[in-house]
Amino acid sequence: MIRLHPALLLGGLAALLGLVGVTVLAFRGLTGFDDAQLDFRLLSDPYTLQILRFSLWQALISALISIAIAWPLARILYRLKPVGTKRFQQLCLLAFVMPTLVIITGVMVLLGPQGALRWLFSEEWKLFGLSGILIAHVYLNAPLAVRILLQRYQALPQGSERLASQLKLSLYRRFMLLEWPHIRPVLLALSLLIFILCFNSFAVVLALGGGPASTTFELAIYQALKYQFNLSEALTLAWMQFAIAGLLFAVSGLFGRVNWLGSSRTHGEWQPELSLLHRFYGWAAYLIAWAALVAPIFALLSEVNLDKLESMELLELGYSLLRSITLALSATLLALLLALLLLPLQVNPILSWISTHHLVAPAMVLSSGIYIWLLSSGALRTWGLSWLVLINGLLVLPFLLSQLRPSAINYQQQYNQLVLSLKLSLVTQISVYLAYLYRPLVSAFALGLLLALGDVSVFALFGRYDEPTLPWLIYRYAGSYRLEEASVASTLLLLVSIGLVLLLERNRTNTQES
User: Fold this and answer.
1) Is the pTM of this model over 0.90?
2) What is the DSSP string of 227-269?
3) Which of 233, 210, 206 lies closest to 221 in space, CA to CA?
4) Is 262 helix (H, G, I), strand (E, B) or coil?
5) SS3 of 514, please?
6) Per residue in 278-321, pLDDT tens?
7) Which of 438, 434, 447, 424 is nearest to 504 (CA)?
8) DSSP characters for 22-38?
9) CB 361 within 8 Å of CB 23
10) Do 454 and 469 meet the contact criterion of CB atoms below 8 Å apart?
11) Other residues' Cβ atoms within 10 Å of the Cβ of residue 471
């Protein structure tokens, strides 16, 4: 345990109790109030079963397609080592962490009824529904899979690579003896991670669902609370989703953690001998991947019409951006404070799991419990905005802890005993600790701001629609087919996201080099 000072350990325990307290309140809300109770009849209701089937089916197909694309591409990048691989990985990170509504707007511009690539599909094909959901999910998750699998390939022992080359092993034997044992554990964990992300998806299904046949648990809970005000249905669906998501996370824990923010590593100058045909196919796949990743972004930028700014409500656009940044900044700073307090407890596996247990409860489930609890206490209007910030902070907290944990452990191993032996004051100890964590803190700040900036699901319940954030404004524009306005707003959010990704990558790289 990182023993900076007894006061800091007490602070960590107090923060931990606070996290548990929020979860208890959410569960208190999920027990219902007044006449709203669990309705077990919904478990056999045809519509509920349709939601269950579609949620599982779209998540399964999305995960399989993402892995089917990412695995061969990661292998090509590892063996071919083409020019621009580092930039490609940064683009993969951007595609995964940028606000979902930005990607959705680009996909709508590209493949919508008047889209530039609409001619590739038949007249009967529709973007809205399962097709659009799969396209958006694959775009968001395949780059993540490429990044993780490439890191795994780059960790292959170079001595084994050279030995396999000297023995002239066939492609099949090389794959079975060298690659498959190394890739298999990560492949299973990664597949399950993408399945969970797609199962808990909200913004993609909200914007591209297209009707009751394409409804998932998150969307059904939102509709039951905000439109039908059927609290019993919302409670039942929330408990169903929590049970399934909790089981999935428990199973994913058996395969270990997936380090999706790790950096690329190089091992010497070993380069496999590839035939001209293999190089041709490799470069073709690499260039197609580049084109697929940048196409929605270029489509989005091409739709921006500066003349449209004259007819847009620029004041609303500016206020939406300011509101988004303010809420995201508040949530991120809160998450950073909690992360610093909780870091000394991370070496204990049980306390570490409790610190990140909000990963188990999907955002809509946690939000629903708090929303219903606030309704029952009559405090929704007064405290709704505060809870919006708090829940967003708790949802990004596990990602910040994973970003800060390695540096905190290094501090413990290298400097903690020295600092304690010098009997420095609490303020001085904190100063030394924060100075050591400066670059990781900047990276964690950029990551948290990126994730909180794109929030849709929490705002959908707690936000005021007459005072939208920028993502919600984009959804409102895109939902009414005002794609030019949606493109302008999305481009604004995209530029902020690019700046934060560059800040995240630069500080993370400098931290690893130092």
Assistant:
1) no
2) TS--HHHHHHHHHHHHHHHHHHHHHHHTT----TTPPP---TT
3) 233
4) coil
5) coil
6) 889 999 999 999 999 999 999 998 888 777 776 677 888 889 99
7) 447
8) HHHHHHHHHT-BTTB--
9) yes
10) no
11) 25
